[in-house]
């Protein structure tokens, strides 16, 4: 049995807090070849996840919030927002599933936000993600401004 408890979450939070990327994950699957990838993702405010999709091979991706507040956004092929949901612990919005071939990103709205993520495997760094050509890449100087523009456009920026 794999247990998800406070100790595991706190250890992951510490890793995320010490990470330059302001996030960390804990994999439950034992190999990259596993056909069902399962992990905890801890995201802090200020991290940037470049919009991407999973295709060739097509993969579904599902998220369940365990702690904090995270915005999930989907986009058209040209970068217009098509849908969004705010996952927040203790509310009725606790999960979302992204279909294959759908551009999406996640923006944490509170530091120490933790998701349980499930994605079709296997994982191959060369085919896992197709990054959106219309969005900044991770590490670009305008990446966080891109997130801010999304939040402002959705009237979610405090």
Structural summary, described in words:
It is a single chain. The protein is an alpha+beta fold. The protein has a single domain (6-153), classed as Jelly Rolls. It is 15% helix and 36% strand. The strands form three sheets. It has a five-stranded antiparallel sheet, covered by helices on one side. Strand 5 and strand 6 (81-88) form a beta hairpin.
- Percent range for β-strand residues: 35-45%
Distance between termini? 41 Å
Please identify, by name, the CATH architecture: Sandwich
Largest sheet: 5 strands, antiparallel
Instruction: Summarize the helix and strand pattern as letters.
Output: HEEEEEEEEEEH
Secondary structure layout:
Blueprint lengths: L5 H12 L5 E5 L8 E8 L8 E2 L7 E7 L1 E7 L5 E8 L6 E4 L4 E6 L4 E8 L9 E2 L11 H11 L5
Antiparallel strand pairs: 1-2, 2-9, 3-10, 4-7, 4-9, 5-6, 5-8
